[in-house]
Design goal:
Length: 254
């Protein structure tokens, strides 16, 4: 949780005291919507951004929020059906801006952190020192020594999907195309989660029915993706991807 904007750290009413007298100065409170956390209403500490909607909060605040909800506190978008913490990233540039705009904030945060560790008898982490990068020397590497990618897929996301659109009935012409048919999800996700993902990405109306098919089987909402993959077997796999076909159907007019 961050420090409140109305504390003693707001002693300066201008963005910068080092500006010349000729330059215009703005009150700090005009920037509050951009440098405060919507959850604790304090200045951002460890600014962390949701990748789905780009709303930013204190890291501790958004992590606590995700204990009981998988939606963004600002726009209510579903961040992730099962693991919303996968879709947040630190925003170091914004945090640097906050520290530059709010006098003494970084110093107070550091003091609070030291007090926290010392009170519990723990070693205080040392600040990360950024060294000047050495000149890059290109060398021919053996095939076995090629460095692996820094990005690793979490083991919980153990099912890779290929969502193929098979068509729609006449009268459904306002849907958006599914731009990214490749999705990696948890095997604990259900067909209902897949349907909700399709509805959101294609902006479908509630009246439009989404039928999801794997092979020759029309799938039920409650079925788990891991069970479908194990039951259908290699027949529904394409290059290691579980292929799900889906179509759109309008409700019958009585």
């Amino acid at each position: 949780m961050s420090l409140p904007p109305n504390g003693h750290h707001d002693r300066s009413t201008n963005v910068s005291d080092s500006d010349s007298e000729d330059e215009p100065k703005l009150p700090l409170n005009q920037f509050y919507p951009y440098i405060r956390c919507a959850l604790c209403c304090g200045f951002l500490i460890d600014a962390t951004t949701i990748t789905e909607c780009l709303h930013t909060f204190c890291k501790s605040c958004i992590v606590k929020h995700f204990f009981h909800s998988n939606r963004c506190p600002t726009c209510s978008i579903v961040v992730h059906q099962t693991q919303p913490l996968y879709n947040i990233r630190p925003d170091r540039q914004l945090q640097d801006i906050v520290y530059k705009m709010v006098p003494f904030l970084e110093e107070v945060v550091r003091e609070d952190m030291c007090h926290f560790y010392k009170e519990r008898g723990l070693e205080v982490p040392k600040p990360v020192m950024v060294s000047t990068p050495a000149p890059v020397v290109l060398k021919r590497q053996k095939k076995d020594n090629i460095p692996q990618s820094v990005f690793t897929i979490p083991p919980e996301l153990d099912v890779s999907l290929l969502l193929e659109f098979v068509g729609a009935e006449e009268g459904i012409s306002n849907y958006k195309p599914l731009e990214r048919p490749y999705v990696r999800v948890s095997g604990e996700a259900t067909v209902r989660h897949v349907e909700l993902f399709i509805r959101r990405k294609m902006e479908l109306s509630p009246a439009c029915q989404v039928d999801v098919v794997c092979g020759d089987h029309l799938l039920d909402h409650y079925q788990l993706l891991k069970d479908i993959q194990s039951t259908v077997g290699d027949e529904a796999l394409q290059d290691g991807l579980l292929v799900l076909h889906f179509g759109l159907v309008l409700p019958s007019q009585s």
